[in-house]
Amino acid sequence: MWCFYRMESTPSIMLRRALALTWSQAALWAFTMIAFLLLLEQISYLKKRRSVPGPLLVIPFIGDVISLVRDPTKFWNNQAKLAKSTNLGVSANYIIGNFIIFVRDTELSHKIFSNVRPDAFKLIGHPFGKKLFGEHNIIYMFGQEHKDLRRRIAPNFTPKALSIYTAIQQKIILEHLNRWISLSSTNKNKPLRLRLLVREMNLETSQTVFVGPYLSAKAREEFNQDYTNFNIGLMTLPIDLPGFAFRKARLSVERLVKTLGGCASDSKSRMKSGAADADADADAECLVDFWMQDLLSETRDSSLPPTPEHLSDAEIGGHIFDFLFAAQDASTSSLLWAVALLDQHQEVLSK
Questions:
Q1: Is the pLDDT of residue 13 over 80?
Q2: Residues 6 or more apart from 263 whose CB is under 8 A from it?
């Protein structure tokens, strides 16, 4: 039997050993750098937190975002408890590289909001809000641009406009209350789950107040589904890839804004056709009608500066979506308190 051996030269062995040593050194260097960055992250967090109540240590890079996404209510309740534990009225946490402060004190909240400007406090609204709402959004506007937009939307909230909105809400709410009574009767007076029923009522009031006759039944159905996707996306990680809830939410927002922009276009056409009437304001049935009336009056008035680009139909659709989102948030809070208080006062509930 013959055996053959491949003889390696001494330089080849030395090269292999040198490469192995180099990779070992690189791995050690990388590990040291990562450990150093993690240490800096913890030191930075602790330096900012100081004596403010909050987690003693944070998970590297992501912070407490898993708890926030998994159970938002519990997360914010814990922050509120921490804020209440001292006289400071605030608590701290760390979310994806951002040091956050939770403010529970009312007076301190007023001071903060009175100083919202680029060189003081920036209103974030949501950790991933710009990805969902877009950069050019009323939430992120400052200075003269914000003042100009507020001036232009002022006609939407005159006493006359508000009286129309109130009448719309009253009519829709009574229809839903009667529907709930009917459901309760057919359900042999067993308790009903109000969450989805209240949500339907809330969405219909907002949609009708803002864009009234310009949403068809099919459009409302698609709108509701897209709005559900949007709400789910608010509570997920910002993974903007196909199949993830955040991507679905972002695309849903684009469709919602496009739909609302179409409503603005339809309203503008309708208001323009009625502008020849002596009292065109009588035709206004919702918020977008009042807005388009004012926009058309500015267009006819040559003494006023030309309408800026951010008041195109698409941008108006985006702003209406902002209003609708804000209205949903405020209405949901009010309805939650209403249900909670009714449960505490059974004599009122029985009426």
A1: no
A2: 211, 214, 215, 288, 317, 320
Output b/e per residue, 35-71; b: 16+ Cβ within 10 A.
eeeeeebeeebeeebeebbbbeebeeeebbbebbeee
Contact 334, 205 (CB under 8 A): no
% residues pLDDT > 90 (the chain): 25
- How high does pLDDT run on average in the chain? 82
Asked if 168 and 212 count as a contact pair (C-beta separation under 8 A), the reply is yes
Q: To which H or E segment does residue 93 belong?
A: strand 90-95
77 token code pair? 């309740």
159-198 pLDDT, tens digit per residue, is: 999 999 999 999 999 999 899 889 888 888 788 888 788 8
Please give the C-alpha separations between residue 16 and each of 9, 23, 200, 285, in angstroms, as whole numbers.
11, 11, 70, 81
What H or E segment, with its residue span, contains residue 26? helix 10-49
Confidence band of 4 (pLDDT split at 50, 70, 90): very low
pLDDT, one tens digit per residue, over 238-261 is: 888 898 999 999 999 999 999 999
Rounded CA separation 329/325 (Å): 6
Strand pairing partners for 99?
A: 94
Element (H, E) at 92: strand 90-95
Our CA angle for 250, 228, 67, nearest 5°, is 80
Specify which residues 92 forms β-bridges with: 101
Paired tokens of 280: 């065109």
**pLDDT number for residue 249:** 92
DSSP character at residue 139: G
- Alpha-carbon distances of 42 from 56, 60, 92, rounded to whole Å: 9, 8, 13
Residues with Cβ within 8 Å of 209's Cβ and at least 6 positions away in sequence, in order, are: 165, 168, 169, 286, 287, 327
Q: Which tokens is 282 given? A: 């009588």
Question: In what helix (H) or strand (E) does residue 95 lie, and over which residues does it extend?
Answer: strand 90-95
What distance in Å separates the CA atoms of residue 210 and residue 263, rounded to the nearest whole number? 10
Dist CA 238 CA 56 (whole Å): 26
Q: Would the pLDDT of 37 be above 80?
A: yes
Please report which confidence band the pLDDT of residue 278 belongs to, taking 50, 70 and 90 as the band edges.
very low
Cα 172 from Cα 205, distance rounded (Å)? 6
Distance CA 345, CA 204 (A): 28
